[in-house]
Amino acid sequence: MGPLYTTDMSSIELASTLPKTYRIKNIVQETEMVRTYIFDGSLGAKPGQFVMVWLPGVDEKPFSVAFDDGAETKITFFAVGPMSEALAQAKKGDLVGLRGPFGTHYQWDAGDHIVLVAGGYGAAPMFFVASEAVKHGCTLEAIVGARGTEHLLYLKELESLKHVSLHVATDDGSMGHKGYNTEVLDELLQVAADPNTKDPPIDKVFACGPEMMLKAVLDISEKHRVPCQLSLERYMKCGFGICGNCVVDPLGIRLCVDGPVVKGEICRKIEEFGKYHRDDLGKKHEF
Ligand SMILES: Cc1cc2nc3c(=O)[nH]c(=O)nc-3n(C[C@H](O)[C@H](O)[C@H](O)COP(=O)(O)OP(=O)(O)OC[C@H]3O[C@@H](n4cnc5c(N)ncnc54)[C@H](O)[C@@H]3O)c2cc1C
Ligand code: FES
User: Fold this and answer.
1) How many Cβ atoms sit within 10 Å of the Cβ of residue 87?
2) Is-above-0.90 flag for pTM?
3) What number does CATH give the domain 14-102?
4) pLDDT per residue over 112-127, tens digit each?
5) 66 lines ligand 2 (CB under 6 A)
6) Structural domain boundaries of the chain?
């Protein structure tokens, strides 16, 4: 069926703004607090987009699409609060409401050399980017960071992809670089900028993770004059531009429509970026 209505803000089909139930085909317990749900069915999502996950009688929250190959859809989530803990109780075979996909996605050109910076569940959408970008002849440097080895996500999946080099950073030094993944980014961009290097230049930096990590990615990418695309999180209710809950100061752009993936030059104009965010009632909270 074609679009039932079109607005100037989007061409989202009415059907995708209403939840549809999907069955959990499989569950992967990634770490103690992180699970991946594999849903039977595709929403046609692109890397960077999100879906609204609805648990009737509990809540509805946005989750990045961790994978969508046209046959199945994955989300990877931390059980950290009321909604995500209730979601973590679901069993294989249960039905969950999904609507979407919503928002912007990462954009690359064929043959690009891209650095991916992943913190927390951000490793999941970065894997989705990598698995699609390699089909377009891209080569990728994936930097996955976490507090310690036991919290690292999607290492095996990223390692399994051809043309992807994996870099790891842990705060406690238990694997890879001891320190932040953004320090590895700085080093990679430094080496790539060296006129004597044999490495190909880096065309783009993509990142998904905690906002203070994204802020560092923006600063470092700007320092090395490499364009970046960052996935920003704000409290979302409708997910497709109606409620205004996800607008950011002072631009007033809605991150569910003009984001979550935002180009570095736009992030720079968002005054609240790396400083504060608003809750469901619009109250400010400092990072
Ligand atoms: C575009 C977008 C994409 C998102 N994608 C994902 C995703 O792929 N996976 C995912 O786990 N979450 C994701 N989130 C966050 C998710 O929507 C919920 O906010 C999260 O699941 C917590 O909801 P809750 O109701 O369980 O707990 P809340 O009561 O909302 O949060 C409990 C506490 O945990 C903190 N918190 C929220 N999210 C996280 C987190 N991921 N890790 C650590 N602490 C957190 C909150 O700041 C709060 O202090 C995304 C958010 C947005 C806006
Ligand atoms: S979540 Fe409603 S406008 Fe963005």
Assistant:
1) 21
2) yes
3) 2.40.30.10
4) 999 999 999 999 999 9
5) no
6) 14-102, 113-286
